[in-house]
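Figure 2 data, in text form.
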Amino acid sequence: MNILISNDDGIFAQGIRTLANTLVAAGHTVTVVCPDRERSATGHGLTLHKPIRVERVESVFHDPIQAWACSGTPSDCVKLALGTLLDQPPDIVCSGINHGSNLGTDILYSGTVSAAMEGVMEGIPSVAFSLASFSSQDFQPAANFAKTLLHHLSQHPLPHLMLLNVNIPAVRAADIAGVKITQQGIRRYTDLFEQRIDPRGKIYYWLAGEVLEEVDDPSFNPTVKLEGKHPEGLEVPLEIVETDVRAIQHRYITVTPLQFNLTSPSGLQTLQGWHTDWLTC
């Protein structure tokens, strides 16, 4: 497969090196286009008011990987690669392996997920990979799973305009409980803005806070059931779909299908019952 890889941790991040080197060793053709520095939590931002610069990078990845470092956001990187740097579209876009999880509502801020989403918006199957730890440096189990998953996807392509968000627990491969197809959970943080003073005596703020993990929400309905058979080689129990936040806590690899269409089906059903003749300007 021809694979485009990006990330939001930057060109020198261990996660992207491990992923790219593992995939090229498996026989894939790999191209890397990613930010020249960390761009975490940039969401789907694009650079519009200043130029984007790109430089070839040597001696970071194994041969024959071609790599570029881009001054823009993760979404810029994928858009630039698809529009300019690549001679032909890749078979798949991969993002990561991110250092830290992208679970629940994290995906709304994630540069990792947004890079993969940019591929989906261009009609290319895409997968975002994250290691659920900020301290672990062992990305190899996650990269090995990525290799297995991409082999499966080469034989069983994803539906059109679908993105897979994959989170791998930061444990030894032997301690991974399995793989679960999950739905997006709810993850919230206790936001705290710490006030500081710079050397010129001016006040500035630094965003901090702690994750609350899964938050119960009466509007959230985790009762969607899987239909049909699970993919061969991926042991996915056909039962009530668990959330990604809860499954990762039990050492499961989580695979969550996403889409960029944010229209609410239940909202459409509700609003269809409105009498809109009173909604006049």
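Caption note: The helical segments are 14-25, 74-85, 111-121, 140-155, 244-249, 265-272.
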